[in-house]
Every structure is written in C-alpha cells, then in structure tokens.
Amino acid sequence: MNTPSGRAVPRCPPLLTLECVGHSFDGGHIVVLRDVSLELAPGEGLAIEGPSGGGKTTLLGLMAGLDRPSCGRVRFDGQDVPDAAAWTRLRAARIGIVFQDYALVPTLTAVENVELAMFGQVPGTAQRRRRARERLAEVGVADCAARRPAELSGGERRRVGIARALANAPALLLADEPTANLDSVSAAATIELLLRLHAERGMALVVVSHDRGLLGRFTRRLRLADGQLGPAGEP
Ligand SMILES: Nc1ncnc2c1ncn2[C@@H]1O[C@H](COP(=O)(O)OP(=O)(O)O)[C@@H](O)[C@H]1O
Ligand SMILES: [Mg+2]
User: Fold this and answer.
1) Which domains does the chain show, CATH number per domain?
2) Which site in 104, 146, 166, 196 is 20 to 30 Å from 129, CA atoms measured?
C-alpha cells in the first residue's frame, strides 16, 4: 500500500493464515478438509457454519496447532510454526480455546482450572490466583470460584471455560459450538459475553456453530461443507 506521497506503508500480516490446507484421518481414508485457504486479520471476527461431521472441530484444531494438516500450511503472525513445541508455546501465550465439551479438570475448582492455564506464563501463586479471580469476574462467575465443575450449571461451566481461555490475554480466541447444550437464556448470554470480550479486548474471534442466533451476529461468515470453505447462506 502507498501513501499519497508514494511512501510504502508496511502492512500488518494476518494473524492466522491457512494455505491450501487438507486433512484426512485413517491413513487418508477419511478426507475431512480439502484445499482450505483463509486469512484472519488481527482483531477480526469470523463465524463458520456447517453440517455435523463436516470438519469444523478438525479445522479449529488445525488453527490451534492441536493437529498438523495432512497437507498445506497454517501460519501464525505471518510465520510458519516449526513444530509441536512451538504450537504449545503459542497456545499457552496467544491462543485461547473454548472446547465444546468444556474440558475442565473435574477435581479442580473453577479458579484452579483457570490458574492451571497460567503455569509457565504468570509467575507466583498469589499473582496467578488474583488474575484467575479477575478472569472469572470478567465473565460473570466470580461467585463460582470455589466450586468444582460438577457443582456448576452448563452456562457456568461455559463461562469458566471462557475465563480459562482468556487466562493469558490471547490474540486469538477459538470457540467450538459455544452455545451447544445450553438453555436459550444461557446461550444468549454466552453470545453476548463472547462478542463483548471480542470488542473490548480487540482479540480475533473464530466461532464454529450451528446456532443461527450466534452466526447472525458476525459480518464475516463462511460455510464448511464437503471439506471446503465457501460463502455462508443467510443465518
Ligand atoms: N481422530 C479422528 N480419527 C478419525 N476420524 C475422525 C477423527 N476426528 C474426526 N474424525 C472424523 O472427521 C469428520 C469431521 O469431524 P469433526 O471435525 O468433528 O466435524 P464437526 O465438528 O463439523 O462435527 C467426521 O467424519 C469424524 O468422524
Ligand atoms: Mg464439532
């Protein structure tokens, strides 16, 4: 890009880039993704819809480096991520994941679940505890801090999962069907929470979902079907 004076302005690289990504399981017998390309700018929001079994969770896993693509490349901040250890460091510091099934540790309290994500990132027990409490308060479940997952409602678990994903102030939040299995009131509150955090924190947000109420809140929407990304229909 050039200014009126003709001086080149360096462009910010995309936060996340998928380049011709393909993925298969079972030695290539189950082909889930074919030739998926995508760029996500820093702070951008994106919703991906698609049929069950269409590869949405697989795609999020590749965006987070939980799995490596069978072919093609996934870049973060314009850089190739060399190996699994580098992806682990990125997930610890820059990528938050909200798992569909919550993935909370059942023997730990809510505040301990959030603290767990801070080990190696935030020094000191007291500081981790203070920050974990702040995160729980930010998502509206400060009063759940001392309860274990089995003592929380689905909506509360979802919020604790979001607090944990925010533990280290990620640049990218990935949310897998964040309103699934929630009653309509909790689902609506979760949508508002995610969008508020996205706006206030300026972090990029990718959600995969079937939920029309959630999909309709994003200006950028794509559909994953037959292993390929294309334009989404009206929500
Ligand atoms: N680890 C795996 N091994 C074999 N097949 C898998 C694995 N993970 C997912 N699949 C298959 O890949 C397809 C896409 O799954 P998934 O990404 O979970 O879809 P979605 O999230 O859209 O429902 C499904 O057919 C599923 O059975
Ligand atoms: Mg899924």
Assistant:
1) 14-88+204-230 (3.40.50.300)
2) 196
